[in-house]
Every structure is written in C-alpha cells, then in structure tokens.
C-alpha cells in the first residue's frame, strides 16, 4: 500500500559536502519507515536530483528499496583529487556515445586531446576561468599549419564549438558556475565568411582529364561528386537501386563513415536530380559491373563502389591513395575533395538566375538542415547576380534621355579614372 513520504524537516533531500581535497560532492538523505536513508556520491546536483526524484516516486508507489541505492561490499576508494577538465570531458564523451555519430565523436575526442587537455586538462573544473579558455582560443587563432599557413576559419569554429558544448553541459549539471566559452565567439570571424574554393570551369576540366589519364576507374565517382554535390560518404554508400534512371534522380538514404554505414548527416533521406550525362555515366558503370560479375559467375556488387568484404571502399583510401595521388601526379593545385561539393553548389547558384534555380532548391539538393546554412556558405559567391531584378523596378516609360545617358557614361569614366 502506498505510503505517505512527503518531504519534511527530517527529509533533507539533496545535501552538499566538501571533501578535504576541495571536491564538492552531493548525496541524498531521506526518511523511510521512520529511519534516515543516506546514499549517493554525485559530482553534480543535477544528477543527484534525478536519483532523488526516482526514489520519491518509488516511495509513493510503495516499492522503495534502500538496499538498491546504498553501496554494498567494500568501501569506495577515495577520490584521488578534484574533478578535472579532462576527467569531466572524458565522462561527457562516454555519455554521448549514442548521441553523436562515431565520426563526430572521433573528431570531438581528437580536438579535446590535441587542443585542450595539454593546456587545461589538469585544471579542476571549479577553478576554470574565462581567461584560461580564451588563451586556448587565441593560441588557435595564431597557430599555423604544417605548411606554414593559417588555420581555416571553419577549423577554428570547430574547436570553439567543442569546448562550448562541453562547458555548457558542465554548467547545466552545476559543475561550474558559468559557461566560460559562451561569449568567446567575438574572437572568431563570422561563419558566413568561411572561405570556400570552388573550382572554375577550366579547373574542373583539368581535374577530370587528370582522372581519366591517371585513374580512369575512378572517373565515375568524381564525376558523380561534381554533378550531385554529394558528401563523399554519401556517394560511397550508394547502391545501384538508389539510382532511378526513369525519373532521373538519386535517392540518398545512407552515409559511409569511420563508424560504418549510417543515416545521412541530417538523418533524412533526400532526392538529388540526375543530369542526362551523369545518368549515362552511371548506367554504363552499373552495366560493366553486372557483366564483370556474370563473367566470374558472381552476384553483382551491392555497392556502386565496392571495397573488400561487404562494405564500400573506404573514405580514407579514396582521399589519400586516389584523390591526392591524382593531384600530385597531374601537378594540379591542391584542393579538398569536399570542394567538389562546393563547386556543384556555386555553379548552380551562379547560373540560377536564368535557369530558375533558387537557394531553397540548392539547399534541398545538398541536404542542409536549414536554408540559412546554405545562405551563410554560398550567398557571397553571387554578388550582383540580381541587379537585373533591381533594374526591373524602374517604370517602363522612365527612358533616360541621351544627354543624361552621356552624363552618366562620363561620370562612370571619371570614377574609373579616379
């Protein structure tokens, strides 16, 4: 039968204690059947609240068992020291194993291990200050790559994003009094100014010619990336059944990353329109795969770009052993494989005014979570593209007289000379 276990003056709830080493821990004290029950050793008040709420519900339902909460067996080991940034960050990573994709988690762990642990890893969480975090961010602003160049703005923002998320979690759990990274974005450039480097038409032709000459078996993949804007992992995860030749579109439903076959980055499937030329290239590629499989008395491959075993070819192999090798052999200017995606998007937008292409359409093709992301990355590539729309606002009968036209031309020439 449910018991009346409302909190009273004896039922103290969440209690706080400071250990001799300075670490603050929280424990739970409540009354059950007329006797005090004390249990728990939590580093955050938020975690203690969750357990306390669960215990009170069990009390009200008459199924509370103190032995399930109290420690049994040998006494717990004493804490070796206060909760440091490294200890907390490692715990945060473990708690988010099921939240982030493996490739994202791997990137977060690398940033923490290479950027923050050496600088503030041993600092107790309560002792963290804004100046400590700012110093790491400013060091990244000045850091150079192995080739001597500055870090890309996107890299700096990625580093800032990780520390901000970790400290936000610590703040919500009341491990720290405030998120010291919250307002440090002022030291970084706006993400809208990230430099992207799409290929020109001549560079695209030179690259595809180099692929045909040095690695013709990979022409289909790189032509696919240039004509669809797919992420490399999405392209490698394509299966023949994802290509709809009759309706001319590709259904993008999965991604091939370091963590295996997963959903797309936005966790949504999308349709990407198929150009006539790309449809011919893909159709020939699939036909060759089927003919080769039949010649060997085998089933056609499951993937458009099969690797060893049951999975597609790996991203690492394509990036390092194929893509970079082609650029090196052909003597081409080095760029990233992701720039093929930027080339697709920027080319569409530059030609969009006369072909009816909208920013929303490009955003849907790229699989961005928001059209704002597309605008931030690509809008600056088309300055003046809509000047014609402004001219159209002029009344049709507002004809400029020849004298005024001459004056306008003279002023323009004067401005140029100045």
SSE layout:
Elements lengths: L12 E6 L5 E9 L2 E8 L2 H16 L24 H11 L6 H19 L9 H13 L10 H20 L28 H14 L4 H10 L3 H5 L6 E2 L4 E4 L2 E3 L2 E3 L7 E4 L2 H20 L19 H16 L8 H12 L1 H4 L3 H8 L4 H8 L8 H5 L10 H16 L1
Antiparallel strand pairs: 1-2, 2-3, 4-5, 5-8, 6-7
Helix pairs in contact: 2-3, 3-4, 4-5, 6-10, 7-9, 7-11, 13-14
How would you portray this structure in words?
The structure is a single chain. With 418 residues, this protein is mostly helical. Helices cover 47% and strands 9% of the residues. The protein contains 16 helices and eight strands. The chain has helices at 45-60, 85-95, 102-120, 130-142, 153-172, 201-214, 219-228, 232-236, 276-295, 315-330, 339-350, 352-355, 359-366, 371-378, 387-391, 402-417, and strands spanning 13-18, 24-32, 35-42, 243-244, 249-252, 255-257, 260-262, 270-273. A three-stranded antiparallel β-sheet has the order 1-2-3, covered by helices on one side. Strands 4-5-8 form a three-stranded antiparallel β-sheet. Strand 4 and strand 5 (249-252) form a beta hairpin. It is elongated and about 80 Å long. The chain starts with 12 loop residues before the first strand and ends with a helix. The relative contact order is 0.07. Mean pLDDT is 79; it is low at 1-9, 72-79 and 399-418.
In short:
This protein has helices at 45-60, 85-95, 102-120, 130-142, 153-172, 201-214, 219-228, 232-236, 276-295, 315-330, 339-350, 352-355, 359-366, 371-378, 387-391, 402-417; strands spanning 13-18, 24-32, 35-42, 243-244, 249-252, 255-257, 260-262, 270-273. The protein has 418 residues and is mainly alpha-helical.
């Amino acid at each position: 039968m449910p018991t009346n276990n409302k909190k009273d003056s004896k039922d103290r709830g969440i209690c706080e204690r400071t250990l001799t080493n300075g670490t603050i821990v929280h424990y739970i004290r409540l009354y059950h059947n007329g006797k005090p029950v004390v249990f728990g050793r939590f580093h955050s008040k938020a975690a203690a609240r969750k357990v306390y709420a669960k215990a009170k519900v069990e009390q009200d339902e008459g199924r509370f068992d103190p032995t399930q909460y109290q420690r049994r067996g040998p006494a717990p080991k004493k804490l070796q020291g206060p909760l440091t940034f490294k200890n907390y960050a490692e715990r945060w990573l473990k708690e988010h194993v099921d939240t982030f994709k493996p490739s994202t988690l791997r990137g977060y762990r690398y940033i923490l291990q290479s950027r923050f642990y050496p600088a503030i890893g041993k600092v107790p969480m309560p002792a963290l200050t804004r100046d400590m975090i700012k110093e790491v961010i400013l060091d990244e602003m000045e850091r150079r790559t192995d080739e001597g160049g500055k870090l890309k703005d996107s890299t700096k923002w990625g580093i800032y994003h990780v520390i901000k998320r970790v400290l936000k979690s610590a703040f919500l759990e009341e491990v720290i009094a405030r998120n010291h990274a919250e307002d440090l974005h002022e030291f970084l450039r706006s993400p809208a100014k990230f430099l992207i480097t799409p290929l020109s038409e001549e560079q695209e032709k030179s690259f595809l010619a180099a692929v045909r000459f040095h690695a013709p078996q990979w022409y289909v993949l790189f032509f696919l990336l240039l004509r669809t804007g797919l992420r490399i992992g999405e392209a490698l995860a394509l299966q023949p059944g994802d290509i709809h030749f009759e309706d001319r579109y590709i259904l993008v439903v999965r991604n091939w990353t370091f963590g295996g076959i997963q959903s797309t980055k936005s966790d949504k499937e999308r349709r990407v329109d198929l150009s006539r030329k790309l449809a011919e290239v893909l159709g020939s590629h699939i036909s060759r795969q089927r003919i080769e499989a039949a010649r060997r008395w085998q089933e056609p491959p499951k993937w458009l770009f099969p690797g060893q075993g049951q999975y597609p070819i790996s991203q690492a192999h394509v990036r390092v052993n194929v893509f970079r090798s082609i650029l090196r052999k052909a003597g081409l200017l080095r760029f990233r494989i992701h720039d093929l995606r930027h080339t697709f998007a920027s080319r569409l937008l530059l030609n969009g005014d006369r072909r009816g292409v909208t920013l929303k359409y490009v955003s849907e093709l790229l699989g961005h979570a928001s059209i704002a992301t597309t605008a931030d990355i690509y809008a600056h590539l088309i300055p003046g593209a809509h000047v014609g729309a402004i001219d159209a606002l002029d009344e049709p009968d507002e004809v400029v007289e020849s004298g005024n036209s001459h004056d306008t031309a003279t002023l323009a020439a004067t401005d140029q000379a100045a």
